[in-house]
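Summary of Year 1 activities. Much of the first year was spent building the evaluation harness for sequence design. The harness presents a backbone, in tokenized form, and records the residue chosen at every position. We chose the following record to illustrate the format because it has been used consistently in internal testing since the harness was completed.
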């Protein structure tokens, strides 16, 4: 996901006039921040400045603090992640298939965002982090409610609990996938199967 967002940054300023130096510098800083924080949540402003190829003065002119830079990077990635999930709102897609597609995508996002999210946990308040999750959580809630209404998902548990289970399963899958491993695990099938099992309604008893 962070690679996709970096590419999006590079092409995010359409228009007739060439991008200004200020715009190019901001884009370079955000690309560098995404890479650096992906590798290490503790990456410093100085390290990010070096990676971006701009001076410390230029970096601080765009982002006066590490908190401001982490906030901008996180907002960018969360926005892009939410955009990738918009197609799941299609009512023609069954709740079961929509949730399966969502978790198949979300675990990769969680994996790519691990370093950035850890940095955000130190720089931003919990209220702001929860607010950033609102769109995704709202989308999951709508899908779960739709599945509960049509009998696809079980209704003997609280909706909040089911949402937390989905997040926990996706995070568990993300923790197993390490790109640096010689043969990284792709947990997509296991994540989808587990979420299906957790949400599935009990089959109706035969008469």
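For this record, the design step produced the sequence shown next.
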């Amino acid at each position: 996901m962070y690679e996709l967002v970096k590419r999006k940054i590079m092409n995010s300023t359409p228009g007739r006039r060439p991008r200004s130096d200020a715009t190019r510098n901001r884009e370079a800083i955000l690309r560098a921040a995404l890479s650096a924080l992906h590798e290490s949540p503790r990456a410093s402003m100085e390290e990010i400045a070096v990676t971006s190829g701009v001076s410390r003065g230029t970096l601080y002119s765009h982002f006066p603090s590490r908190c401001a830079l982490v906030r901008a990077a996180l907002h960018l990635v969360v926005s892009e992640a939410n955009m990738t999930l918009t197609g799941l709102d299609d009512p023609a897609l069954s709740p079961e298939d929509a949730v399966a597609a969502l978790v198949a995508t979300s675990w990769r996002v969680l994996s790519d965002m691990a370093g950035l999210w850890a940095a955000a946990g130190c720089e931003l308040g919990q209220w702001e982090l929860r607010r950033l999750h609102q769109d995704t959580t709202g989308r999951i809630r709508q899908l779960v409610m739709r599945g509960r209404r049509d009998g696809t998902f079980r209704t003997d548990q609280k909706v909040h609990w089911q949402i937390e289970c989905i997040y926990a399963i996706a995070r568990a899958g993300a923790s197993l996938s390490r790109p640096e491993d010689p043969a990284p695990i792709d947990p997509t099938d296991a994540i989808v199967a587990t979420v299906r099992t957790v949400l599935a309604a009990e089959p109706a008893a035969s008469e």
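Residues 4 and 175 are 20 Å apart (CA to CA). Quantitative recovery figures across the full test set are reported in Table 2.
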